[in-house]
Design a protein that fits this description.
Blueprint lengths: L1 H11 L3 H14 L4 H13 L3 H14 L4 H13 L3 H14 L4 H13 L3 H14 L4 H13 L3 H14 L5 H17 L3 H16 L4 H21 L2 H12 L7 E6 L5 H9 L4 E5 L3 H10 L10 H5 L3 H16 L10 E5 L7 H7 L4 E6 L2 H9 L6 H6 L3 H21 L3 E6 H6 L1 H11 L11 H5 L28 H4 L3 H10 L4
Parallel strand pairs: 1-3, 1-4, 2-3, 4-5
Helix pairs in contact: 1-2, 2-3, 3-4, 3-5, 5-6, 6-7, 7-8, 7-9, 8-9, 9-10, 9-11, 10-11, 11-12, 13-22, 16-18, 20-22
Length: 506
């Protein structure tokens, strides 16, 4: 029907307000169709109408309490909304209703693992393999859990068996298994073979993603961004600050950024353990409510300085209101006078956009030996197609790092805002000294609970890829990890020299 297609098209293109209105009309006409209620919930969530979204999702589940596809869909929406109790409830119901469905049980196992409930995740996988002993994803996930339990010899054996036992193994499972094997071999000190496995995994990923198109889009965006940054002046930054002074930010705000894998999650947990800090862990709020709304429609996708300069006070206020509404949904705490700390490495490349709206916020940038950053990023198996492209080789990983840090260096040069840098190595060598320095920068006194940040981290769901590491006391074994791969990095050292020198790494 035309009305449904129109509402769905609006939803798929991010036009959430008209999509919500369209689905509202549809559920009034067809109140017994659970899919319409689920789609209404998705549209309402995108429109930041979270109460209506929850109501719609609940109605969808009431109408189809035994539909596994719908339960997984609604559960996934709750997962993205960071409502983990509701997400688990949907998945548990789907498993209870359809115990033979391997994919549903494995999704549940993956969420349990992210919640550090390893024994429950293991039980899920074992039940799945009892019913489906040759299921490739179940065998892969069992190997992953072996690795998470520190049983890397057993994990290596399981992965080699999986890769060798079935010549028709789907490409995506081959890619994940090869990548995990590289991680396991790294943990076992078999560094040369680890790189071989990672290279194989990334080559396989190229057969899945449209990497040529994504690479071109990335290059165009980066080129436009460099042009914008070159046009920025200290006078422009000053004018933005003056404009913002006329309508102060409704909450004390700070951004924690830096290149991926630079220790942002560790510092986030140390600062977030302070009772006067309200922490937000890599939420999509800024990207969805600010960047997307500023980006022009195709084909002119690139943001320009004129767009930023032409933002009216009303336009800025609307974006700021939506940003905080989205951000604060991610917590059940009352913000009060607390400092809101938005930790998101990806915002570093958009720091000029952030400062257009929040020039009076404080900015903390995490640094780490660039060579360690490159190796750590290369070893990550990020699900995003953009990460697949940017970490497809060591060369592209270096390029991605340089693009990110060039934004930071340019904004640091322009000035006009409060910022501080923190080095990962300083944190792990003297947590309290560096933690105190940063806490003081944020205008807060040091709190004794910050020294044992990992105890608080264990009690919550951490969305960062380093969710496991930050539940441990601070350690130094990741410092100078790059030396195991010095030969592979040697041809790339000239491209990293500027950053090593600028940030004080010999």
């Amino acid at each position: 029907m035309a009305a449904w297609q129109n509402a769905l098209q609006n939803l798929n293109h991010g036009r959430h307000a008209p999509a919500q209105a369209g689905f509202n009309n549809l559920v009034q006409r067809f109140p017994g169709v659970p899919r319409l209620w689920a789609e209404l919930g998705t549209a309402a969530a995108g429109n930041l109408d979270f109460a209506s979204a929850d109501q719609a999702f609940r109605r969808a589940v009431e109408l189809a309490p035994a539909d596994p596809a719908l339960l997984v869909s609604v559960g996934t929406q709750y997962y993205h909304l960071r409502r983990m109790d509701q997400a688990f409830a949907c998945l548990n119901r789907a498993v209870a209703m359809h115990p033979s469905l391997a994919n549903v049980r494995l999704i549940l196992a993956s969420w349990l693992e992210r919640s550090r409930r390893l024994d429950e995740a293991w039980e899920c996988v074992e039940i799945c393999l009892t019913r489906h002993p040759k299921d490739g994803w179940a065998l892969y996930f069992k190997a992953f859990l072996l690795h998470r339990k520190g049983l890397n010899v057993e994990a290596e054996r399981a992965l080699r068996d999986l890769l060798q036992s079935n010549p028709l193994l789907p490409v995506d499972i081959q890619s994940h298994a090869s990548h995990l094997l590289g991680i396991v071999l790294d943990a076992l000190g078999q560094y040369a073979e680890a790189l071989i496995c990672l290279s194989k995994a990334k080559t396989l990923r190229h057969h899945i993603e449209d990497t040529v198109r994504l690479e071109q889009l990335y290059e165009n965006t980066d080129h436009a961004q460099r042009e914008l940054l070159a046009e920025l002046t200290p006078e422009t930054m000053g004018r933005w600050r003056e404009e913002a002074a006329a309508s102060p930010c409704p909450h004390p705000l700070a951004l924690l950024g830096g290149a991926m894998r630079s220790g942002t999650t560790l510092m986030e947990q140390i600062l977030g353990a302070h009772p006067d800090v309200l922490l937000f862990d890599e939420t999509p709020s800024f990207g969805k409510e600010v960047v997307t709304s500023l980006s022009p429609p195709p084909p002119a996708r690139e943001l320009t300085l004129k767009t930023l300069n032409d933002l009216t006070a009303t336009g800025r206020a609307r974006m700021i209101d939506r940003y905080f509404k989205s951000l604060l949904y991610n917590t059940e705490e009352d913000p009060g006078a607390k400092l809101l700390l938005d930790k998101n490495p990806s915002t570093t490349t958009l720091l000029h956009v952030w400062l257009r709206l929040f020039p009076q916020s404080k900015v903390v940038v995490a640094l780490r030996d660039p060579r360690d950053v490159i190796i750590s990023c290369y070893f990550q198996n990020f699900p995003s197609p953009w990460a697949t492209v940017n970490f497809s080789s060591l060369e592209r990983t270096v390029r991605f790092y340089a693009d990110c840090m060039d934004v930071w260096l340019r904004m640091r040069e322009l000035g006009g805002f409060e910022w501080i840098e923190t080095r990962y190595e300083d944190v792990v060598n003297n947590l309290e000294a560096e933690g105190r320095r940063l806490t003081d920068f944020l205008g807060l006194p040091w709190h004794e609970g910050q020294a044992t940040y990992y105890e608080a981290a264990r009690r919550k769901f951490v969305h960062s890829p380093t969710y496991n590491e930050v539940t441990q006391p601070v350690y130094t074994r990741a410092v100078r990890r790059w030396e195991h791969y010095a030969e592979a990095l040697a041809p790339l050292q000239p491209a990293l020299e500027k950053y090593c020198r600028t940030f004080g790494y010999s």
